[in-house]
Every structure is written in structure tokens, then in C-alpha cells.
Amino acid sequence: MNTGRPASRDHQHTLRVHVRRLSARRHLVTVAGALDLHTAAHLADALRPLVLTGGHSVLVDLSGVGFLDSTGLTCLIAVYRTARGTGARLALIAPSERVRRMLALTGTDQVLHSYATVDSVPD
Questions:
Q1: Half-sphere exposure of 114 (CA within 13 A, CB side)
Q2: CA within 20 to 30 Å of 35's CA: 21, 59, 67, 112, which one?
Q3: CB within 8 A of 78, min separation 6: which ones?
Q4: Chain centroid offset of residue 10 CA
Q5: What radius of gyration do the chain's Cα atoms show?
Q6: Which residue has the higher pLDDT, 76 or 13?
Q7: Of 24, 20, 29, which Cα lies nearest the Cα of 90?
Q8: CA of 123: how far to CAs of 35, 82, 89, 112, in Å?
Q9: DSSP string for 98-111
């Protein structure tokens, strides 16, 4: 039976990352797709240079992330540790329900702080 869908499953392993400067010291990184073994490096590559500059706030909008596995979670934790070491700040914005559940299940929500909106993140 032909469903008209491509045989490849690559569409499941795509991650769109968009970086936007909100101010001189604040960036918004919008993420959409699956954050997993196949895509975590892409997000890390986008976030790493932003958190290497101390004093910056990096806000990561995860509202479009429908799936997060342990590799994606490890990516976020590693970036958080780098940010903490450089004096940058990492905050999660509007994580999807699936992402919130994974953060809570692993206790990561106690370390990676989440906010409902960009405007609700304190300066």
C-alpha cells in the first residue's frame, strides 16, 4: 500500500533553529522539530557561541519541540553548564508539554528554568 509519503524517515529528524537578537545582551533562539540524537548537535552549534559571551541572556523557545530524548536533554544541560561557567544566562521559553514532562521526570526542571513568555524572563 502506497501512502504517498516518502520512504525516508528524515523528516522526523529535522530541527529548525532560528536565532534573533532582541537587544545587545539578549538573544532568542526559536527551536522547532525533534530534539534528539540526530539533531542535538545542530542546536548546540547555534547555542554555544551565544553562551560563550559572558553576561548575555539566551532564551530558548521550545514551544515547537514535539520530541526530546536524552541526547537533546544532555545538549541543553551542557549548554547550561557552559553558560554558567561564562556568566551567561540560559532560560527556556514555553516548553511544549512533552518537553516539560521530560524536564520534570529527570529533575532537570529544577536547574533549567522555564518561563511562559519572553517578556516574563527577568532581566
A1: 19
A2: 21
A3: 44
A4: 20
A5: 15
A6: 76
A7: 29
A8: 27, 19, 10, 16
A9: HHHHHHHHHTGGGT
For the record, the C-alpha cell of 74 comes out as 544532555
Is there a contact between 117 and 94 (Cβ–Cβ < 8 Å)? yes
Kind of pairing, strands 57-68 and 26-35? parallel
C-alpha cell at 1: 500500500
- Residues 82-102: what's their mean pLDDT? 95
Residue with cell 551542557: 78
Query: pTM for this structure?
Result: 0.87
**Rounded Cα–Cα distance for residues 46 and 41 (Å):** 9
Q: Which residue has the cell 524572563?
A: 121
CATH fold of 15-117 reads Transcription Regulator spoIIAA (3.30.750)
pLDDT tens profile 26-67: 999 999 999 999 999 999 999 999 999 888 899 999 999 999
Q: Tell whether the model's pLDDT for residue 11 goes beyond 60.
A: no
